[in-house]
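Hi support team,

I submitted a single chain yesterday and got back a structure, but I'm not sure I'm reading the token output correctly. Could someone confirm the output below corresponds to the sequence I sent? I've pasted both exactly as they appear in my results page.

Thanks,
R.
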Amino acid sequence: RVAVFVDLENVGASFIGAVAEFGATQGRVCHLAVYADWRRGYGAAWDITLDLGGVPKQILRTGGKNSADISIVIDVMEFLSFSPDLQVYILATGDSDFVPLAQKLRARGKMVIGVAPNDKGIADALISACDRFELLNQVKPAPPSLPAADEDAMQAPSLDEVRAALVGLLTRQG
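Hi R., thanks for writing in. Yes, this is the structure output for that exact sequence:
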């Protein structure tokens, strides 16, 4: 079982899909959380997170720059304490503030994989603290677009058409 923790302020919104896809290659992802101050206009990231079955975690800036980091650490330690069957922790960040967390997880026998975009600076200490560190592309190419649908074919049936279909169905079933 795998848990993925994304520090959005460190890796960026376009990275969420790539890290979620990577997480699925490591086992069954039972938790995907993306940490950000969502009031700052991460609308697309919110949608992506929800589409992937993830949990957008609200952090509140109280003067420091490490609000997301602290929230991630608290959640990871809760999982460590209450979900002993969780074996793989993926930390999506390049921030050296997570070195003690990675060390603690490894000391408890957990696999720690760091992931970050291949175009971001990553702390050498974090790379060393993880069992493995992966550099991933941020954006996958978009699938080819589908041809535009005929608008007439896309119109919802009228209330009379729905009523007639239901009456016909109920009449046939007795």
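A quick pointer for reading it: The longest strand covers residues 29-36. Let us know if anything else looks off.

Best,
Support desk
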